[in-house]
């Protein structure tokens, strides 16, 4: 199929860990993928193959950790 445009807004944490391989495969197949990621997160890292746009959040990584605990 022809590649399309996808906008991905994953949740922080395990949601992204499950979604990342799918996003990478879609990018490999010719889709133009843009992933919106918060500036502060645990496991969300950019890789080649798709575009990442960061957005500011009001919490620090320490506050994120405290909220999880």
From TrEMBL:
Q: Which GO terms describe its molecular function?
A: UDP-glycosyltransferase activity
- This chain is encoded by the gene named Ugt1a9_0
Q: What is this protein called?
A: UD19 glucuronosyltransferase
Is Magnesium among the key words of this record? Answer: no
Q: Name the source organism.
A: Rhinopomastus cyanomelas
Question: Keywords in UniProt for this one?
Answer: Transferase
The highest taxon in the source lineage is Eukaryota
Q: What is the lineage of its organism?
A: Eukaryota, Metazoa, Chordata, Craniata, Vertebrata
Transferase as a keyword of this entry, yes or no, is yes
